[in-house]
Structure formats: structure tokens, C-alpha cells
Specification:
The protein is an alpha+beta fold. The protein has seven helices and eleven strands. The protein is elongated and about 55 Å long. The N and C termini lie far apart (about 50 Å).
Length: about 210
């Protein structure tokens, strides 16, 4: 990120910057996306509210992340949720013409942009896989296994509420499922982290299929 912002060409194109206060709305669900945003500092949450008023967490964006990159050139280019500043946040907005210029003329920006896009697509794919699990216990196990693939045996969590939002379940349901998995010595956890205690692979390998 620092290398990106130190580039003269990129600097000259990131002059449309806006700063938002905590809890200030950046974009409303259903708004048309006409620009790509790059977080220079702060944090942004993507939130959806159900018809009953329940808040659903969709994603969290941090410094160096883009948003609107999936939408700018899409046929359905409306925001899928409310973008809300979690803290004081500064964003550089890049219109389509400027984005096209940077992608053509800056190898540094193009590499950074495509890497960010690919990482986001991977995270969305994993999240969809987690949500597709049939039971809450399976969601939790699938989440932990993917979260610890980098080699760390422990995954740090912000709070049970944040994890419940990510898994799209209520906090009481999450607490009961965690307690059951802990009782069976499959996982352990505290206020700040969660980890596997069983070395047994939970998910079987797919069955061999006949080739045609």
C-alpha cells in the first residue's frame, strides 16, 4: 500500500478523497456504483438489514482494500448493502476513466488491483461454502479449518457477535454450538480465540467417480 501511494502517477490520480466520521453512511444499499473506492485509512463495514430489521454483516473492508470493483463494470451495479464507516475513514474515489488509465499505464497499480480483486473473490467463495453447510456445527468446523490453513493453530476473533454475524446465525445459537463442540473435545475457545483440539479430519475425502 505504501509503495502504491508513493508512485507519482498513482498519487496524481487519487486526488478525489473524502473523509467520513464513525457510523457515517458512505453508500446506501441499492445506490448505483459509479466509482471504485480505495481505503486510505480507517475501516468500513458492509451491512444489510432484513425486512424485519435484523442487521446482517456482509463484509469488512480495511486499509488498502477496494470496494465497488465488482460493480463498476457490472450490469447490476447497485450496492448489495449499506457501506458504513466503522471509525474515522478516508477514501480515495476513482472514476471509470481514471481506473482505466491506471490499469493501462501503471504495472504497479494493475498488479495491486488484480491481486486485491482475486483475494476478495477467494474470500467470498470461502464464505459461500461456509454458509452452504447444512448444520451450524459444520459451519463452525469449516470456518475454523479454512481460517487456520495459513499454519496458525489458533484463529483470533473480534467477538462472538462478529462471528455470529459472519456465520449468519444468532449469538445464542452460536454459543450453544460452540459449547457442544467443546464438550465433545473437538474445539476449544476463549473470549479472543478459537482452535481445534481434535486432530481427526472432520470432512471425508470425496468418493472416487467413474470416468467416462
Amino acid at each position: 500500500m505504501k509503495t502504491l501511494l508513493n508512485n507519482t502517477l498513482i498519487q496524481s490520480k487519487l486526488n478525489q478523497q473524502r473523509t467520513y466520521s464513525p457510523n457515517q453512511i458512505i453508500a446506501l444499499e441499492g445506490d448505483l456504483c459509479a466509482e471504485v473506492g480505495l481505503l486510505l485509512n480507517g475501516q468500513v463495514d458492509l451491512i444489510h438489514y432484513s425486512y424485519h430489521g435484523d442487521e446482517k454483516y456482509l463484509a469488512s473492508l480495511n486499509v488498502g482494500d477496494f470496494f465497488g470493483d465488482f460493480l463498476l463494470h457490472a450490469e447490476q451495479n447497485r450496492y448489495p448493502g449499506h457501506l458504513i464507516a466503522k471509525e474515522t475513514t478516508t477514501i480515495a474515489f476513482i472514476d471509470r476513466a481514471t481506473l482505466d488509465t491506471l490499469l493501462k499505464k501503471s504495472d504497479l497499480f494493475r498488479t495491486y488491483y488484480l491481486k486485491n480483486l482475486c483475494n476478495k473473490a477467494t474470500k467470498l467463495n470461502i464464505h459461500n461454502k461456509i454458509l452452504s453447510q447444512s448444520t451450524l456445527a459444520d459451519k463452525i468446523m469449516f470456518f475454523i479449518e479454512h481460517a487456520t490453513m495459513s499454519g496458525s493453530q489458533t484463529y483470533l476473533i473480534q467477538s462472538k457477535e462478529a462471528l455470529a454475524n459472519y456465520l449468519n446465525v444468532t449469538r445464542p445459537s452460536l454459543s450453544r454450538a460452540l459449547a457442544t463442540l467443546k464438550k465433545h473435545n473437538i474445539i476449544d475457545y476463549n473470549r479472543h480465540a478459537i482452535w481445534l483440539t481434535s486432530t481427526t479430519c472432520v470432512y471425508p475425502q470425496p468418493k472416487a467417480r467413474e470416468k467416462y
